[in-house]
Fold:
Amino acid sequence: SLAPGVNGADQPSGALRYQFYRTENGAETETAAEELEPPAAVGEYWLRIAYDGDGSYNPAHRVVKVTVGSAVLQVTSSDYEKAYDGGAHPLSGQISVQGIDGTALTPGEDFAVTFLRSEEKPSEEAWEHAGALGSFLHVADNGTYWYRIQADNYAVEVGSFRIDMKPAQLEIRGIPGQFTKPYDGGRQLAGTLEGLTAAAAGVSGEPIQ
Structure:
């Protein structure tokens, strides 16, 4: 605000002007090419606050640096502890991301996410060389998975979750509940089993060879 008049002097009659600029020099020299709308994105800006003067006061201005910092994403993650079901599951399904207003954000559209499988927190070098890891399918995929989330105007978020998939129950089909054979003088029981059809069924009932 304008400083009050001294010793009962008149108050300044004009109004302050506010203008953002890309650089400090642009703000000091009022370079039109560097003028900006009030910023909303993360970054550093320069604000010129000016008074054009009146009959009692000379023009005056000040230039101040304005920094817009990164917001914080709201990220929650969950472990996977279900049984093997034969399907591929996206790793992104284990995390939920919200913006500053609580709006749900979508991977690939609102933010980029990278996954790494590691029992220890990955180093910066490990993240730089991370491959395209996107889903898990088998019990052999169990382990600790780290995520790194990057979004415009937000700080980078890093966290982890566990995949602990349980083996599925295998079903054996085609065997009768009981069977009998007469004594045949010592032939092995295996002979009776010839021609018996048995099959193993997978998680979706598909035959397993």
Observations:
- The two ends are 82 Å apart (CA to CA).
- The first strand starts at residue 17 and ends at 21.
- The first helix runs from residue 24 to 29.
- The mean pLDDT is 87.
